[in-house]
Specification:
Blueprint (H helix, E strand, L loop, with lengths): L1 E2 L5 E2 L3 H30 L8 H4 L10 H10 L4 H15 L21 H8 L7 H13 L11
Antiparallel strand pairs: 1-2
Helix pairs in contact: 1-4, 4-5, 5-6
């Protein structure tokens, strides 16, 4: 239970605990999705023959020029099949997000007008030149929610 200043102790309700559990589970599921996708991605890359852009990044270095890192990231080709799998997984995880409908038109004071599912679907119509561009758009899609439990990291 928690105490509000100048009042009786407030008891944590079952609804409070259930909401917290849903948020925690959504965060774990999103993390599992990204980690699973990354594991599948790295298994499909031939580490013995890095792209020309990535060869300049020595594993013995402690500093890399941002332009060299970006060149390496953008050299990774976009794979539409893996991207669709990522979108499908994220959409299935969003079913657990309690504010999915509210975010379509939240009103004051938050003023969020964001249809996450529609935006995820729309990403597949983009002509991405690199995997980095796709994941940058995923990051921006989830950042627009402004909610700590819906982050997407590059």
């Amino acid at each position: 239970s928690s105490v509000q200043s100048g009042s009786q102790p407030r008891r944590t309700t079952t609804e409070d605990r259930n909401f917290g559990t849903r948020c925690f589970h959504f965060g774990l599921l999103l993390l599992a999705c990204v980690c699973g996708w990354a594991a599948g991605f790295s298994a499909g890359v031939d580490a013995a023959t890095p792209t020309v852009e990535c060869q300049t990044l020595s594993p013995n270095s402690t500093f890399f020029a941002p332009s060299a890192v970006r060149a390496c990231f953008t050299a990774i080709a976009f794979d539409k099949t893996k991207a669709q799998s990522t979108i499908d997984t994220l959409k299935s995880l969003m079913e657990f997000y309690s504010f999915l409908e509210a975010n379509k038109a939240s009103g004051a004071p938050y003023n969020v007008q964001h249809d996450t599912i529609a935006e995820l679907d729309a990403l597949m119509s983009n002509d991405y030149q690199s995997d980095y561009q796709f994941h940058r758009d995923l990051y921006q899609t989830f950042s627009q929610l402004g909610h700590g439990h819906t982050g997407y990291s590059l």
